[in-house]
């Protein structure tokens, strides 16, 4: 079992000026975003719209500073999804350790738009974001990192990418 404990802030205040310039608001559909080295802030509503248009989607609740399942390489998660022919959305809960975004990622990186929840406490806004996204407050969803959707509906959450 691994634990990922850090100061509760989003990590935005620790970014350099150059890193902050790479944070953009997502203003269009998620599928229109490409990996361009930027990090795109998304709302649960935007992610829900993307999910509704896909058959199978895995949303990875990524914590870059974590050494456990929540900190698994996004490239590895995307490879698992590609093998299953699932769409994959990587959403970081924080800004800590996310930059630089590797240029060999063949997918965009997203971060929760915490302004929707009026808090910088990543544990608070992450919980609210995933409750909104999944429409579930189950313990299974709250403690796990990999959230699976089928035909636009939340099905379940997995603790490990190997369980997916």
Q: How would you spell out the order of helices and strands?
A: HEEHEHEEHHEE
Overall pLDDT metric: 89
Structural class: alpha/beta
The radius of gyration is 14 Å
Strand order of the largest sheet: 1-2-5-4-3-6-7
What characterizes the major β-sheet? 7 strands, mixed
User: What is the first-to-last residue Cα distance?
Assistant: 18 Å
Keywords for this entry:
164 residues, alpha/beta, seven-stranded mixed sheet, 5 helices, disordered N terminus
Could you explain how this protein is built, in words?
The chain has five helices and seven strands; from the N terminus they run αββαβαββααββ. Strand 3, helix 3 and strand 4 form a beta-alpha-beta unit. It has a seven-stranded mixed β-sheet with strand order 1-2-5-4-3-6-7. The model is unreliable at 1-6 (pLDDT under 50). It is 26% helix and 21% strand. The protein has helices spanning 17-20, 44-52, 74-84, 122-134, 139-143, and strands at 23-25, 39-42, 56-62, 87-92, 109-112, 146-150, 153-158. It has 164 residues and is an alpha/beta fold.
């Amino acid at each position: 079992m691994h634990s990922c404990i850090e100061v509760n802030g989003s990590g935005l205040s620790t970014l350099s000026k150059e890193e902050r310039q790479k944070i953009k608001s997502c203003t269009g559909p998620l599928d229109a975003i490409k990996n361009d080295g930027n990090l795109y802030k998304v709302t649960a509503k935007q992610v829900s719209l993307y999910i509704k248009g896909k058959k199978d989607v895995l949303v990875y609740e990524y914590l870059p500073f974590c050494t456990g399942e929540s900190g698994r390489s996004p490239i590895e998660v995307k490879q698992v999804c590609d093998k299953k022919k699932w769409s994959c959305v990587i959403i970081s809960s924080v800004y800590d350790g996310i930059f630089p975004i590797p240029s060999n990622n063949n997918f965009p990186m997203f971060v929760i738009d915490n302004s929707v929840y009026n808090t910088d406490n990543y544990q608070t806004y992450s919980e609210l974001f995933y409750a909104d996204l999944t429409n579930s407050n189950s313990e299974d969803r709250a403690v796990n990192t990999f959230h699976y959707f089928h035909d636009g509906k939340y099905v379940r959450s997995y603790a490990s990418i190997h369980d997916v």
